[in-house]
Structures are given as C-alpha cells and as structure tokens.
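User: Some background: our group keeps a shared notebook of sequences we're curious about, and every so often someone picks one and asks for a predicted structure to add to the entry. Today it's my turn. The entry only has the sequence so far, pasted here. Could you supply the structure so I can complete it?
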Amino acid sequence: MRLRRGALFLLWITGASWPAGGPAHAGAWTRAEGDGQLIVTTARRVAPADAWTGGITTDDTSYSQIYVEYGWEDDLTIGGVIYTEVDALDIASSTGSVGLFVRQRLWQGQHGDVFSVQVGASHPIEQYVLEEYDVVPTGSNAFEVQVRALYGKGWGFDWGNAFVSLEGGYHWRDGEADELRFDATAGIEPIKGVLGIMSVYSLTPLGGGTDASLKLAPSVAWTMLPWIGRDGKKPRGPISADTVQFGVIYDVLEEDRGLTLQISVWRPF
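Assistant: Of course. Here's the predicted structure to add to the notebook entry:
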C-alpha cells in the first residue's frame, strides 16, 4: 500500500507495537521492498493501579521488547521479536521469548484496504537466563506457533488521516492451553506529526491454566519529522524520523492486574 499523501502516517500504522497486550503486530500492511522498521519498547505494570502513587504493591512487572521488520518484497515482510517480562516481586516467574514471523499480503483494494496473513513462531528463553543466576523458572511460557488473518484500511481527508486494523489469530502453545486472539486498532492523525491510537486486545484460552483478558490501550505517537532539516550528516536523500509513542494498558476483565505505562521508540531504516 502506498499513499501519495500521509506517507508518514502509513509508517505509523505499520509500526504500532504493544507487547504487554501480546506479541507485537504491525497490522495488515507490508513494507516496501528494502524498507525496514525498528521498534524498541519498555513498559511497567503496577498493581493495584493506585500503587503508582503510593501504597502496597502486589504486582510490579517490567516489559522490554525489540521488534524489527523488513520488506523482503513489496507484498512480503519478514521480522523478529525479542520480548522479556521481569517480575520484581518474584524473579522466578519472569519470562522471555524470541520469535520470527512472515507476513504475506494477499489482496489490496483501490481504496486503501489490505488483507494479509501472518505466520510466526516464538521460543521461550527465560530458562537460559535465569539458570545463570541459579534460579529455577516458574513462569508459564511455551513454544508457540501463531497463524493470523489481518485486515486494514486507511483514509486521507482534508483535515488529516485515519486508519483501522483488525486481526484474528490462533496460537498453538506446546504443553499449554491454545489461545484465540482478536485485536482491533484505530488511529487518527488530526495534526501532522501527532497520531492518536486506540487498541483493544482480547485473549480467549481454549483450556485451563490461562485467564481470558480484554485490554484497552490508548496511546499518542509523536514524530519529529516537521522539525527535522538538512545538515552536514544528511545533506541528501530521505530523512528517517524517529517516533515516540506513550500509552497505557488496562485489562477490564482482570482489574487486579493493575495499570501498565509504556513508551516506544520507532525508527525506520
């Protein structure tokens, strides 16, 4: 998908990443051949939510993620994810994983709509890290294979840009309950360089051991492009502007999970 206007907006909607809601996904859009995107994310979840301002903390978990994707062809994108969760109150329950994925665009309409499929796999890594500190891991993590169907549509208006992205997937988990996941994200760019995003992440376990969840994730992303100019380091060629995204995540089905604050930095390459 290529938009003559709102090219920066397209960069945004193919880069939204929310690891605390689930493994990173970049919507149905594929990247142009030779284009890439790196997203580095850090987040912290504290429970109960009011513990952010003081009081007894029952959960204090930090998240980190490195996400990269690359346009192998215009309709084929490949990528990888490194993801960790560190529980400050119970280090043995910390988890981590390394994953790879392939996204194939199957159809592209004339009005900015796209349909794709994505296949990926991830492998747990916490046992290799925790064993270095003589800690026996107790967290619930498993080798996982995911298959997803994705649909996205973008609009350009006189006053700005907007998009919607819908995803549904089946996650097979070795030794754990399989999962159905459905995600929806909508965004609006009323001002050049500022994007408002609202995401909803749902998880339905197909067995015991995992709780269902429904996470709301509002965020704001700001790109420095309007303030970037030429200099001696970049006298010609395209400018790769960094984007910073701030957001919160709240699970309406598990209120005792507290509130997550998150920041991501996106960099195209």
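Suggested note for the entry: The CA atoms of residues 151 and 259 lie 29 Å apart. The chain has one domain: 7-268.
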